[in-house]
Amino acid sequence: DQQVKQNSPSLSVQEGRISILNCDYTNSMFDYFLWYKKYPAEGPTFLISISSIKDKNEDGRFTVFLNKSAKHLSLHIVPSQPGDSAVYFCAASELAGGTSYGKLTFGQGTILTVHP
Amino acid sequence: KAGVTQTPRYLIKTRGQQVTLSCSPISGHRSVSWYQQTPGQGLQFLFEYFSETQRNKGNFPGRFSGRQFSNSRSEMNVSTLELGDSALYLCASRGTSGARVDEQYFGPGTRLTVT
After folding, report:
1. Better pLDDT: B110 or B28
2. C-alpha dihedral over A74, A76, A80, A83, to 10 degrees?
3. What pLDDT score was predicted for residue A75?
4. B52 touches chain A (CB under 8 A)
């Protein structure tokens, strides 16, 4: 049972354009969402996060949108740069309460390629 | 501030052997989580330690175990290795200003190959 899904295995975008990465979740107990970027042979790097009490969070070129009713979130990268080419993971955590400590549930990842 | 460090970076073991991986969290971080990454299953949570206590455990067999020391460094151990244990093992640490997960910061991982 995959509780966090990234349905697009890959995305190809031209430099300077917008990249939109999508993520869906099924567990209504999730209340905190994160995006990570990963290069080969390295650990995931934290990018941006959003709490369920918000619907948008922005940090420079990165914006995350959350639609709780649709159980959907997306990461927008504007403008996209070749250095953004990596695997992007969506992750979620449940409400604190004993079973959620330190646990992130990850999607399968989307490979983003930004062409010069 | 130094990031999360993991040793060794690469390891080759034979089926039936055991292995111990080490993780040093970011200075001041007391929570350490471990994840397994495989092509088929993606990133899966193994367990989390805080103040030398395991607070949460994922759905892995008892062959996977861990511990945390008083300086917050953590080790994970896999006994009786199987071919399917070949994976990238990632350690993540986070600050603990509250009971929330918040952002976890990952190390580079240990690539374990079981032959």
Report:
1. B110
2. -60
3. 98
4. no
